[in-house]
Amino acid sequence: MTPQDMSARIVRYGELQPCKTAFIDAHTPGSNQKENFTIIGGGVSESADQHVHITIPHGFNIGAAGQPPRCRNSLHSHRTAEVFYVLKGRWRFFWGRWGDAGEVTLEEGDIINIPTGIFRGFENTGTDYGMIMAVLGGDDAGGGVIWAPQVIEDARDHGLVLGENGKLYDTKKGQSLPEGVKPMPVLTDEELRDFPEPTPAEVVPNFVARYWDMMSLADKAPVQVIGEKGMLRDRPGFEVGLLNHNSATSDMHSHDRPSVLMPMRGHWRVTWENGERGEAILAPGDTMSVPENLRHTAQPSMTGEASLFHVIATDDPAGPTRWTAEKDRR
């Protein structure tokens, strides 16, 4: 592939196009300043204003959320995996029907693989604009977002109505539900009983990996962070790995499906060859989609701290995470 071909598969951090009306809580005080980014795949945005940077199917979606201090994302759930790593700032992740079953604070570089089937939210608790990068399982990301009932009710009080078609309608702009489209029903008490409330002791050791633990392990070889043999043992339909200065090599390799490179720290030189040789420099916050069967390698381009997340789909179905699957078997 030529550098021109590959440039269409690189999304620079500074070129990310935000959507401020992506979800039902876009008008709700405390959540009305967040920005949603859809980088690869359709994502789960409920707004027609959402820009998608790369539409090529990868078996998963890549997105991001940017929020000023004390801005939060309301309680919701997904049917497939939702993985975040903190690019900038300090973030509090909380979960449960009312968001009080447990919480954990993540620093820059930390990663969380939030169990499916529970309500979760997150808040920027830092002192500046923060950014978290996200991986959602499946090309259709499980068909959308499941909101806690109070989120839908609060949104309606502030002019936003979610249709059963999964699309938002802003009554402040004179919009209304189209004929034949009913409002998205809120979950019943019986349905809500199917949403468990795990304790921090169940979630944190099994679904959170700390940056410096990953970096220490990556000194010997690339570390599998999420995967069948990963630090976080799970099979959500994709794997996440981490490289650093010591585990990056110049050996060319390829995959039989598209993969994604996401620098966390440092600048990385990605080199590829397919008839002709090309290269690009990636910085923290950049996202690069590497085509299937393209021989390539990634190496830090300078001294100092360097780390890079690598994401690739697996043959596992995009569905419940290990914790939820184990609960279902009991």
Automatic annotation (TrEMBL):
Residue ranges of the TM segments: none
InterPro entries xref list: Cupin_2, RmlC-like_jellyroll, RmlC_Cupin_sf
SUPFAM superfamilies (alphabetical): RmlC-like cupins
Domain Cupin type-2: 72-132
Pfam families xrefs: Cupin_2 (PF07883)
Protein name, entry field: Cupin domain protein
Organism: Oceaniovalibus guishaninsula JLT2003
